[in-house]
Specification:
The protein contains nine helices and 16 strands. By secondary structure, the chain is α/β, with parallel strands linked by helices. The chain starts with 5 loop residues before the first strand and ends with a helix. The structure holds pyridoxal-5'-phosphate.
Length: 361
Amino acid sequence: MSNPVYNFCAGPAMLPKDVMLAAQQEFVNWSGQGCSVMEVSHRSADYLEVANQAERDLRELMNISDDYAVLFMHGGGRGQFASVPLNILPENGIADYILTGSWSQSALTEAQKFGKINLAADCYKNNGLGSVLPQADWQLSKDAAYVHYCPNETVDGIEFDTIPEVEKPLVADMSSCILSREIDVNKFGIIYAGAQKNIGPSGLAIVIVRKDLLGRARSVTPSIFDYTLQLKHESMFNTPPTYAWYLAGLVFKWLKQQGGVKAVEQTNIAKAELLYNFIDNNEFYENRVETRYRSRMNVPFYLKDEALNAAFLAESKAQGLLALKGHRSVGGMRASIYNAMPLEGVQALVNFMQDFAKRNG
Ligand SMILES: *Cc1c(COP(=O)(O)O)cnc(C)c1O
């Protein structure tokens, strides 16, 4: 029997096997209709039930109160880099951005097209290790419309271990950590996430926005990116990404069956500990992030002898451990271990890494 395949891709990432099988089973004949869910009107009663159930399940999973709107939008994570300022940054306003890595940098660069951006905290290293500038050293502006940060830097493997305490609405790009740990949604003005890491197919973006922030979009905001308009049309101002929304719904159902966010968080902790402990105790490998800020979702690591990179990638792939190559901007390796990655997958990776080190050390 061949080894099971484990996909460590950073995104689009693996989805739960049970979800893929369920989707496959009803792919051409959905709910007995003789056609795919992809082929029905988004305004049909049956599809609306799928869409509404997905929202209800997400609200339950994240404990989202009625003070917040939940939107299913187009344009992925980057679409929100523009949508956030267009919706809540007044033309002459200012917004604070916290830099911790490459995604928060991209968000800032995009936002600069739309107004004045204050770099409140730059990327920070502590003793040469990737880290987060302590909040006491942030230079927040008095009149910021919002404070933007990225709780989990997918490329750099840096994750906040607490939610920043700020007076202004806190905006978080949770593309790679949404639903991976329990959070208090009430601490945020806006949470957004591209779906392809922890939720479903790419292209879809989930936006959770506190309702008092609505009604502020600039007149030039493209209609499909206008939160207020989308809420009014229940995320169906134009045709939503219906299949992605449906699949997200299956993932939410699966998460509930796993025991919800609290339960998957425990598994995520166990997975991350297994991998980081192995790396820390093996001379052959290293991680370059301060322990406190190590990501539970994306684990970048380096071989001490980088000349072995190509062999490491070829051999891991041959064993069914896919997509371990690090992001081109930082090199090395990266194992993305989102909710759908089972503990056995991380164990298989550790076994391979141990064996590879032994053979090449
Ligand atoms: C993947 C990712 C994005 C970009 O998502 P797209 O859907 O490709 O636009 C943005 N932010 C973070 C943190 C990500 O991990």
